[in-house]
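So, does this match?
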Amino acid sequence: MKKIKLSSLKSKLPKYPNVLGRDRFFNSAILIPILKYKGEYHLLFQKRAKHIRQGGDICFPGGGFDSTKDKNYKDTVYRELYEELGIEKKDIEIFGQLDSYFTSIGVIIEPFIGKIRKKSIKNMKIDKNEVEKVLLIPLKFFENTKAEVYTLKNQVVPYEIDENGKKIEYFPTKSLGLPKTYHEPWGNKDYKVWVYKWKNEVIWGITAFLIKEFLKKFR
């Protein structure tokens, strides 16, 4: 048996802790883009094309980290803004980053904050395969509007019953001999969802949460 050396363990621990098991999750980066338009600051959003995953949702520009293209998450932001909206790196000034956000659906988001040049709006080339349209919403709307708050229930489900009444077991809690509390769905944790209504659009979920956290930096 190989002898355990604590000195070796110490040298292998990270100097700056990250997210344990990060490679198990979908890693992404977004930009909260600030733009001065008609004399006041706006936030830029995009509405996802209807035919893609989470189609119709309003979100900040960004997307998944691609290790073949991106050296870091800031690279992801530059690449995604160019691919989705045709906004070039030279027209983006990144100020910094909010804390990493680990969502309940297994997505890790690195949220950056920055300013984009007004001229980039005129030169935008929207990829209609991904983006239905772009929205510019005054920052003061979010400063002056209290978000609606709803509560969902978040459960861990070890099995499901399909439309034919057949039980589909994902995790064999009984045969593993786990306590009875795990034989049925457990957790049932309250999960808050924030909602902003802008004209005929609804901004909710992760995007609304990021807006809320972003606004704290002004207080």
Observations:
- The chain has a mean pLDDT of 92.
- The longest strand covers residues 186-198.
